[in-house]
Amino acid sequence: MSETLLRIEKLSAGYGPVPVLFDVDLTVGRGEIVALVGSNGAGKTTLLRAVSRVIKAEGTLEFDGADLLPLPPEAAFMRGLVQVPEGRQLFGKMTVEENLRMGAFRRKDKSGLNESFERVYELFPRLKERRRQLAGNMSGGEQQMCAMGRALMAAPKLLLIDEMSLGLAPVVVDQLLEVLTDIRSQGVTVLLVEQDVFAAFSVADRGYVMETGRVVGEGSIAELQNDPAVREAYLGA
Amino acid sequence: MLLAQILTNGVLLGGLYGLMALGMALVWGVLNIVNLAHGAMIMLGGYAVYYLFAGLGVDPFLALPIATLGMFVFGYLLQRFVLNLVVRSAMLNTLLITFGLNVVITYLAQLAFSADFRTINPGYAGSNIAVFGITVPLVNFAAFAIAIVLAGAIWLLLNKMPLGRAIRATSQNLIAARLYGVNPRQLYAVTFGIGAALAGAAGGLYGTIAHLTPYIGASLTAKSFVIAIIGGLSNPFGVILGGIFVGVAESLTALYFGPTYSDVISFGLLVVVLIVRPARALRTA
Lengths: 237, 285
Ligand SMILES: Nc1ncnc2c1ncn2[C@@H]1O[C@H](COP(=O)(O)OP(=O)(O)OP(=O)(O)O)[C@@H](O)[C@H]1O
Ligand SMILES: [Mg+2]
Hints:
The complex is a heterodimer.
Chain A: E1 4-15, E2 18-29, E3 33-38, H1 44-51, E4 57-63, E5 66-67, H2 73-78, E6 81-84, H3 96-103, H4 110-123, H5 125-129, H6 140-153, E7 158-162, H7 170-185, E8 189-193, H8 197-203, E9 206-211, E10 214-220, H9 221-226, H10 228-234
Parallel strand pairs in A: 3-8, 3-9, 6-7, 7-8
Antiparallel strand pairs in A: 1-2, 1-4, 4-5, 9-10
Helix pairs in contact in A: 3-6, 7-8
Chain B: H1 2-31, H2 38-56, H3 60-81, H4 91-113, E1 128-131, E2 134-137, H5 138-160, H6 162-172, H7 174-179, H8 184-209, H9 217-231, H10 236-257, H11 262-276
Antiparallel strand pairs in B: 1-2
Helix pairs in contact in B: 1-5, 1-8, 1-9, 1-10, 2-3, 2-4, 2-8, 2-9, 3-8, 5-6, 5-8, 6-8, 9-10, 9-11, 10-11
The structure holds adenosine-5'-triphosphate (ATP) and magnesium ion (MG).
Adenosine-5'-triphosphate is lined by residues 15, 18, 20, 38, 40-46, 86, 195 of chain A.
Protein name (chain B): Amino acid/amide ABC transporter membrane protein 1, HAAT family
Organism (chain B): Faunimonas pinastri
Pfam family, one (chain B): BPD_transp_2
């Protein structure tokens, strides 16, 4: 495995007094696409929230060699850790273009900014057509594209994506998966949380399986696909 | 002719009312704080201009930007070190703390400035221009023009500048804004500072056309509240229009029913507006 970008060791987190994650270990190497799968309520979203520093956590959480635990979300973001959150969380009363600009809110390089705009519009021509439309008035697929575009505008080192495929037509899912492979080739690392295990495994290098707040399986995609338990629970075979 | 004159007076005064309400609407929309000390901050801006003028001989319209800037700093620090504790907490908490703030500011102002009436009275205070037989007091006209310009500046800030976009984004979705690099404490403090600065500007202008006392805050807060509800929280020009509406309504009431009723009218309007305008129309900043 390549150099570690994100290191999670014995991480515990929860909501107030309610513990949700127990001693989670997970690493993501630079340039990888890592899939994280698990049934509803397993704690995948909670893990991403802990990594993005939206909720408190204990254990080890290192990103790009630095300790993330003491940082607020905006500081984690500044280091290149960018999340496409569950439910998209767009700024619904702002236009598509304004949402994209918010992705680049903290960027200083104005020339790189125009390039990013062009790239996002090239990846999602639909966003360019709709750039003056309010994000909240777009279809689910368009909103997901907008959420992805907003994240890409931030020039991420690590992209955390939560339920990218939820509620989208298979064509759109395929298109978004293609975008993932494409941005990986540009040096972006991805941690992908997915209900659609087939989709996730089709682009990922490695995967983790979570159940009730714990990691219960990990390995290369080939290993996971041959694991009888994973096959039964997630691949319907 | 009398009616035209009355309407003109109402519109000019109403623009200033709109400016008073603008800062309150901004803070309400973004921080979800109904700032009951807003009128007291208008009062402070008025006294700042008064002392710069009466004490140091600075022209009121030059003193205005100084007072505005001073009130920005005041608001920023207040938010950063006091009000950040209650941002987005239950409405009752924010009402209580800003109510307390209003009492404290008013009390300290009475100690510092005394309860005497003050007016900011530059040499040109009584000057008028006549347009089609209507008398337009120069100072009122300047106050109106400044209100429009400041509303335009706020519109530009909110819609065309990164800071303003971040302000709107934060009011729409706090978590997403944080995930994309917004530091809410900083942003709330800046927003509250802008609200206080607008109050300061409005207060300085108000002092050139009306009496200042330490006690004007409460009724100006109430008026700003009514106008913010009429004008909505999202569009600065909507707030100015709301102010003009109230200003005209006040002038007409004074004309037809006598001046004692003009203070009552804004509360009558409040009741009407709360009935016809659904509350959700407000939450669109
Ligand atoms: N805001 C919250 N407050 C309290 N408990 C929560 C909160 N959000 C999630 N939980 C609980 O934490 C557990 C894990 O939820 P989480 O959202 O992380 O699951 P998930 O793996 O993302 O599920 P899904 O696939 O359905 O999105 C669940 O039992 C859930 O009830
Ligand atoms: Mg989830």
